[in-house]
Amino acid sequence: MKQLNNLGGSLRTLAAEYNTKIVGFYLGPYATVVIDDPKLIKKGLYNEDFDGRLDIIVARMRSYWKTLGDIINVSTCWNLLKRYPASWGGSSGYVGFLTTKTASVANLAVKGLSRYDRSYTPFGIPSAPSHSVLCGIPVCFTVITSGLRFTANSKQVLTKTTMSGIFFTDGYFWHVQRRFTLRYMRDYGFGRREESLEAVVASETKEMIDMARNGPKYPAENELVKGDLICLQHFFDVPFMNGMVHIFARTTFPRSEYKVLFDLARATLLFQRGTNDFGGALTITPWLKDVLPGYSGYSNLKKGNQALLNFFDKIIKHALATHDKTYDRHFLDVYIKKWKEEETTVKKTTFSEHQLQLVCTDYMFPAATGVQSVLTFLLERILLQPEIQDKIHEEIDRVVGRDRLPTLDDRRNMPYTEACIREIMRYEPLVPLGVPHRAMKASKFGGYDIPEVKYYSYDDNF
Ligand code: HEM
């Protein structure tokens, strides 16, 4: 690799060397294809055959160490459980569970598991329709009883539920959750114009300007504004993050509590910096997490992830405690209602409290980091090229003036400013390689045969 610490750059160099727009190579055990052509990238992203995701350490850790749904055999299952003692299992201590129609297999599993993990005695769940064995703390029971219940024959044991959230899920689970969240978050302002959301963003922007003009008001702001010095990117945090909180829960954090948001944004950034588009070295050498947890980025991933989960746990618990199914106050209510309905009617649902936590995490994640990074890069660029800064100023003064905040109505009259924002995203792409996709079906692409990849297992890398 020619450009250390620049994965995108090094792959582009490789593509140039082979004079191709499609590079195929093995990244550890992963047969990988990288596309470097705008038209082909678009074609690839619209191709449903490539809508799969990978079972990588970042995804597992985020999802309490659950894995993409699949049926595997008993011995693999035991090996898995042996490898993931509770202390490794993220905050919930998730270890794993298995269900089987055959009581003897369940009994064998209990015995086998007891050998491996003495701190958490595995136990059977006789009341479950099939014989379920659970090892770990009761969060797994929630998973089972929340409808993700499967059966398998005596040789097969299902240890796996789908991973959670949007980013790292695929197939039916992803389709349902993605469609539902986009559809109903829209009712509360996501992806469209909505008066109350615009009012929140405007009011938080005013606070931001006040902070810059008049200095800090609360201790947490001392770290962001020091005289003429302003700490980017966190200075931009609040309008976007409170905007998301408003969509989820129709509430916002007042200025006296901004620290909660600043801390969350810092933790989210820790997560982001602990990895890269491919999941970092941890993807192909996951054992680094035990040998070099700090250097490999694992500690930061864990810390950042936990902060996001804790943040939403509180908000969701409150929404659950005050939930009234006859009245939807916000997106969380709509989600909870659907989850409870499916739980009682169809018995098998992709909705759960844990999934809701990860949905919120996935939509908050870019709002707590990405947008601020884009704006920070733009400011850096216009400091280096003041002639661009002058033109942006001229447009703002002409269209908006100095007496009011801009609104979305001004957007169509500000083509230069918009072009600059778009150009900085092209010039400094935040996710240069995109999020990796898994080929779910064998297909032809750009003249090459792309094989189906049934299941990339994180375990294969141990
Ligand atoms: C700041 C600029 C942003 C950039 C550069 C960016 C980039 C990306 C990229 C490259 C993907 C992967 C797409 C794929 O290959 O499947 C993605 C997915 C996603 N982004 Fe963004 N994003 C940005 C802002 C946002 C914002 C503001 C939100 C939400 C508030 C958001 C929410 C998501 C979600 C939920 C996904 C997962 C989609 C899925 O897997 O179905 N992004 N983003």
Automatic annotation (TrEMBL):
<keyword id="KW-0560">Oxidoreductase</keyword>
<dbReference type="GO" id="GO:0006805">
    <property type="term" value="P:xenobiotic metabolic process"/>
</dbReference>
<dbReference type="GO" id="GO:0008395">
    <property type="term" value="F:steroid hydroxylase activity"/>
</dbReference>
<comment type="similarity">
    <text>Belongs to the cytochrome P450 family.</text>
</comment>
<protein>
    <submittedName>
        <fullName>Jg22619 protein</fullName>
    </submittedName>
</protein>
<dbReference type="InterPro" id="IPR001128">
    <property type="entry name" value="Cyt_P450"/>
</dbReference>
<dbReference type="Pfam" id="PF00067">
    <property type="entry name" value="p450"/>
</dbReference>
<dbReference type="GO" id="GO:0005506">
    <property type="term" value="F:iron ion binding"/>
</dbReference>
<keyword id="KW-0503">Monooxygenase</keyword>
<dbReference type="InterPro" id="IPR036396">
    <property type="entry name" value="Cyt_P450_sf"/>
</dbReference>
<keyword id="KW-0349">Heme</keyword>
<dbReference type="InterPro" id="IPR050182">
    <property type="entry name" value="Cytochrome_P450_fam2"/>
</dbReference>
<keyword id="KW-0408">Iron</keyword>
<dbReference type="GO" id="GO:0020037">
    <property type="term" value="F:heme binding"/>
</dbReference>
<dbReference type="GO" id="GO:0016712">
    <property type="term" value="F:oxidoreductase activity, acting on paired donors, with incorporation or reduction of molecular oxygen, reduced flavin or flavoprotein as one donor, and incorporation of one atom of oxygen"/>
</dbReference>
<dbReference type="GO" id="GO:0005737">
    <property type="term" value="C:cytoplasm"/>
</dbReference>
<keyword id="KW-0479">Metal-binding</keyword>
<dbReference type="GO" id="GO:0006082">
    <property type="term" value="P:organic acid metabolic process"/>
</dbReference>
